[in-house]
Specification:
The radius of gyration is 20 Å and the shape is globular. The protein has a domain at about 25-205 and about 235-265 and about 325-350: NAD(P)-binding Rossmann-like Domain (Rossmann fold, 3-Layer(aba) Sandwich). The longest helix has 20 residues, at about 170-190. A hairpin with a 5-residue loop joins strand 9 and strand 10 (about 220-225). It has helices at about 35-40, 60-65, 85-90, 105-125, 165, 170-190, 235-250, 265-280, 290-305, 315-320, 330-335, 345-360, and strands spanning about 25, 45-50, 70-75, 95-100, 135, 155, 195-200, 200, 215, 220-225, 235, 255-260, 285, 325. Helix content is about 40%, strand content about 15%. With about 350 residues, it is of the alpha/beta class. The strands form four sheets. The chain has a seven-stranded parallel β-sheet, with helices on both faces. The structure holds NADP nicotinamide-adenine-dinucleotide phosphate. NADP nicotinamide-adenine-dinucleotide phosphate binds near residues 80, 81, 99 and 100. NADP nicotinamide-adenine-dinucleotide phosphate binds near residues 53, 139 and 201.
Length: about 350
């Protein structure tokens, strides 16, 4: 079976990738990675190497294996921090979807599992005769909107945050360094890559809250930073489709794509829907300037006290998450031919249904 080629920037169709081409997916048992594997199988690819750290959660992949009996789904266990494991993972791969990352709050953890792990994997791939594309899954969190007005469009041209100490965001730091490593291997070793930066990914399988950009949930109640601006959500199936397409389209080497869906809900609507579907909780409305002033006071106290309190709240973080911007998926639609297959209302319905069922069981 041959998977369809994609239309390129210059309007040409790419050479279709043979269905049996070896494809590596890292983070394959994660929330987004497992849907990327499913999407590849649905597109007819039959030779997928699923890289995972531990056997925990193998049943997810085993179920996919049963649904697609004609496909070969190899689970390779290892750690991207170990160069030998990276060589095993990378061997002969034609396409790599790199989703493994450090997603916690520790700086060393995020640097190791995002930047160092990526470097190890790229070391194993540099000079590969088979590799056609390294699809690096980055994040919206790398952007700095410090120079953007409230309500301005944040797209791929937005600068990346480089004031790391002031921002004090371990995850964003790790993801920025990860993108830097990828760009470096592209420039120095000719690794063909594309970077995808999803907003907030949600859907069945997502644990935890999706309200992080609506406000702050730290002091025993929810500080809702008011605003009519949209929250950059992307439903997991739509996001996985964009990621898969980025591996197949011609003419997009070194391009960066943001992933957000259409019809994004405002912060107020998302909070209202969450309360209605998952149960009410106490929230206080706080205007953005007040949130910024609180972040500024915290930041200054942290500096004055010699970081007795770390600057967890600071102006750059406040701006990045709560200033309020608009978002564009125009590039994704134009160059990859992507459009969100699951509309926002249906996506939210499926997500809340999943959360209610998970809470009841
Ligand atoms: N979820 C979102 O809202 C969102 C938004 C923007 C970008 N992203 C990006 O999308 C990607 C996938 O996110 P996700 O939500 O699916 O995260 P996830 O569920 O936490 O999955 C991350 C995966 O990375 C693997 N991993 C971490 N360190 C590793 C290492 N040293 N060696 C091998 N594997 C390692 C983990 O393996 P184990 O299962 O063994 O721990 C896990 O399966 C990440 O790159 C993330 O930064 C996610």
């Amino acid at each position: 079976m041959i998977a369809a080629g994609m239309q390129s920037q210059d309007g040409h169709m790419s050479e279709p990738l043979p269905a049996a081409s070896p494809i590596l997916v890292t983070g394959s048992k994660g929330f987004v990675g497992s849907v990327v594997v499913r999407e590849l199988l649905q597109r007819g690819f039959t030779n997928i190497r699923c890289f995972a750290r531990t056997p925990a959660g193998n049943d997810k992949l085993a179920e996919l294996g049963r649904k697609f009996p004609a496909a070969r789904l190899d689970v390779v266990h290892g750690n991207l921090l170990l160069p030998d494991d990276c060589r095993r993972a990378a061997d002969g791969a034609v396409l790599v979807y790199h989703l493994a990352a450090g997603t916690g709050k520790s700086f060393p953890g995020c640097v190791l599992d995002s930047a160092v792990a990526t470097r190890n994997l790229l070391d194993a791939l540099a000079g590969s005769q088979t590799l056609k594309r390294f699809v690096n899954v980055g994040s919206f969190s790398v952007y700095s909107n410090a120079t953007l007005r409230r309500g301005a469009v944040l797209d791929e041209s937005c600068p990346v945050e480089r004031a790391y100490t002031a921002r004090f965001d371990a995850y964003a730091y790790g993801k920025t360094k990860q993108d830097d490593v990828v760009a470096e291997y592209g420039a120095k070793h000719g690794v063909p890559y594309t970077i995808l930066r999803p907003g907030v990914v949600f859907g069945p399988g997502r644990g935890g809250s999706i309200l992080g950009r609506c406000g702050i949930d730290t002091f025993g109640f929810f500080m809702h930073v008011t605003g009519r601006f949209p929250i950059p959500l992307t439903y997991v199936d739509n996001c996985a489709q964009a990621i898969v397409l980025a591996g197949l389209a011609e003419g997009i080497d070194r391009e960066v794509f943001n992933i957000v869906d259409d019809d994004l809900p405002s912060s107020s609507r998302l909070l209202r829907l969450t309360k209605r579907n998952l149960g009410r909780f106490f929230s206080v409305r706080v205007p953005y300037p007040a949130c910024l002033a609180f972040s500024c006071a915290w930041e200054k106290y942290a500096a004055w006290s010699g970081n007795q309190l770390p600057p967890l709240f600071n102006r750059r973080m406040c701006a990045a998450y709560h200033k309020g911007n608009r978002y564009s998926n125009e590039k994704l639609k134009r160059l990859l031919g992507w459009s969100p297959a699951v509309p926002m209302d249906e996506a939210l319905r499926r997500y809340f249904e999943y959360r209610r069922t998970a809470a009841a069981s």
